[in-house]
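Write out this protein's structure.
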Amino acid sequence: MFRRLNRSLSLKVLFALLLGCAPAFAGSTVTVKPLRSPPGKIVYPRLVAGASAQVRRQVNKVLASREKADRQQRLDCLAAIRQAGQSPDRHSFEETVAASYVSERYLSVDVRQSYFCATAYPTEDAADPLTIDLANGTEIDWKRVFKPDFLPRDGETAPSALTRLYQMRYAASGEQQECKDIVSGQDPLQGGAILWLDAAKGGLVVQPDFPHVIAACAKPIALGSKDLSPYADPAFLRDLAAVQAKSACGAGKGAGGEDGGEDCPITLRFAPGKDTTIVEGNFRKGGDCCAYALGARSGQVLTWRLEGPAARVTIRYPDGHVDSPMPGRIPLPATGRYVLRASPDLMAGGAFGKFTLTIGIR
């Protein structure tokens, strides 16, 4: 029954306006509004400029249809809770909607749902994206974008090219070894591949449609135009490369303009004479938080302690490899840039909320 952020903003994508790790859609005349759904409301963006009037009407019809369906899904969920003799609250069904990619050719909307509708278990942060081809105003057919052997196909026993790319990236990530074993030991996309475009993440985002028991291992992985060049339509690659070139960190909350996402870590600054700093963050459903970068010398020791919700912490070393350290002391083997990333541990309860992270270099 159940399918599968906080201000109204007109996204005029001819700009030098949208900075930071938010999607940078420079060079486009397409305008969507709002960029993110208001808190607590299910609101999809609308195409208000760009493309022909006929295409705009078609695009907005698709967006309105999805918005209506999601609102009905919420009503059905709340009704199921009441029928079970329980009382729904504002957390019973939550949805965030954000325009993650806009260009002259494509509009991608990142939709995340969390709900507990009197079923056996809750669903947390499930991805249900929508990507529209602005050439014709219809939902994208990914089979037309990629070569036949790229996407997983029903009945195929050999892994697809997309599966191999996903497994390779996953193996190099900082995910728990248990999850890496699951992803490497099977075709993670055979049960379904969730695809959407995200300018801030750098391209095509791929996520397995895992069952609940292993859903926490369904890490979204971004593939850029270089990764996809052997498999994708040239026009799609040009569009992706153009948006990637304009998408960069620059006006977020960090001292250097970063927003704290995995691709745009906040650069940590230590006060003169201090070897410890304390940062605060908030794990939100559908958010990309929180990564912190710092420079250190070989032989120094990094210490960290996190207080707050259940979390996973990884460290990326200057050579690119990622590890999941235990709290305490981490001897640093090389001089360079280290990135410490904290994320909600979806395998545990109480994974969302505010946290405090203490980081030291000695």
